[in-house]
Amino acid sequence: MASQADSKDRQFLAVIGDEDSVTGLLLAGIGHVTAPPDNQKNFLVVDSKTDNATIEATFEKFTAERKDIGIVLINQHVADRIRHRVDTYTAAFPAVLEIPSKDHPYDPEKDSVLRRVRRLFGE
Amino acid sequence: MSGAADREAVFPTRQSLGLMKAKLKGAETGHSLLKRKSEALTKRFRDITRRIDEAKRKMGRVMQIASLSLAEVTYAVGGNIGYQIQESAKSARFRIRAKQENVSGVLLPAFESYLTEGNNDFAMTGLGKGGQQVQRCRETYARAVEALVELASLQTAFVILDEVIKVVNRRVNAIEHVIIPRTENTIKYINSELDELDREEFYRLKKVANKKQRDNAALDAEMKVKREAAAARDQENQAPAEAIEESGDILTAEEDEDVIF
User: Is A18 on the interface with B (CB under 8 A)?
Assistant: First the structure.
């Protein structure tokens, strides 16, 4: 499995979420900006004005292009906007994690992994 | 192969029978080993799914507490600090490291979080007021992220295990339903062919023995006729008693010869 070989240098977390979630997680110290030439941030603030294409492109960038990200955190309501992309994402690395946000209560039924868990237990 | 049961293309010889028997034995050993592996993995898998379920619920609670403390910060600082924080984030303090754990030959990654020393992007945040709240908020969020990291490693393990279990089960089924029946069929085929050869050989030997017996009988009869003729001639020449004795001797000798055949 090639995906396990490159797991060593994945050392950052990435966030796609609303302002509060991103702010909080940045306060915890996960924010990282790569060296000056490209200045890639590992977080994206989504508000009502952000269009789905941007979210999708960022999700794509975090999951496929960047090799230094181990976990992608995404707000559940944001994940809902690109649900088809999140649901079809099955790779082990980076792990995609849906997190609750302040204004949107967490709904376990929508979570792509939890749904798989439930299906396996035949519920 | 001639529409018969599914079997391998081999010549029905004793050597290939031995090979097939060894193969069947190997397949059975492999089957039981794989089955055990699959069981071990499934046990682990169930354990992980249960823990994921728990961790997801815990995450909901932890994130709630964290957002509450962020609201406290916003209140204390008296304004939105989002921009300031997004601009001052430069280098990650909170990083993760992937470890690997071996479960019956499957490498499961586990993330481990660690803090790098010496870089603090938010030294100036909350300097004016609300510094304490900012500090507390950072701690709360750090704990939340730790829970998230744990959940992420469970989830990764879940995805990998899911895949591996599918592969192992496919192998177990292939051995159970394809390889073992096919090898057994081949062994049956070789045995039946060998039996057939044996019967043929036996029949042939019987035929040969029959033929030999018949030839011998004919030869014996011929010899007897010749001897009797010779004895008759002798009797005419010599004394009758002597001749009878001699011919009796010859007869016993002949019988001896018969026994040899």
Answer: no
